[in-house]
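I am writing to request your help with a piece of structural work I have in hand. What I wish to show you is a protein chain and, alongside it, a tokenised description of its three-dimensional fold. Could you please explain, in whatever detail you think fit, how the structure tokens follow from the sequence? You will find the record immediately after this paragraph.
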Amino acid sequence: LTLFAIGLGVWAKLAPYWPEVAIAFTFLLIVVVSGMYTIAMLVSEECALEYFHFPAWFKWGLLPYPLLSRGGGERIRQAAERRAKEVRARAYNERTLLKMNTNTSSSMQQPTTSVGRLLRDAADSIGRHDTDISAYELRLEEDWYNNASELANMSVDSLSKYMPRRLAEEVRNENDLAKGGGFRASYIASGSFSDDGHKRTVRFE
């Protein structure tokens, strides 16, 4: 439609000066044909897989030039196959990476040591479900704290040397509850008040 409108404009502007009309239409034809040729060749080279799967009417009607060259159809088919292999390889690598990240996340959320489980429970209780607590566990292990029972008598100030103070407070809270009967508490916005003034909800293990 755009090309048709340009042609009408040239005709209306230059007619009846026929030599000028002929020159203008010749120039327009050269620009359009060369431009379509360049675009068609660029698409067939850079987007070979997509071009290969274009409907036949689209390829032959708008971008036929790559198919008109000698061996053009076979060249496009081979390029499309290479592109398809690249796409499959990329998809496989991305799925593998996603699976590795998922496994890493699962491992992070399921520590195997008693210290790690205590830190994980405390972090979950304050809503930090995605926080990696392995660094805090490692700091404790560097000072030979390898069992959760060894943290039972540590103060919040002592624990906060190894982890954020908010987490240290919850670890202390977990230890206090364990001493008092094996319950676990998680701080929330509403609930019953404990003797230390924090609001918490308590659930049985």
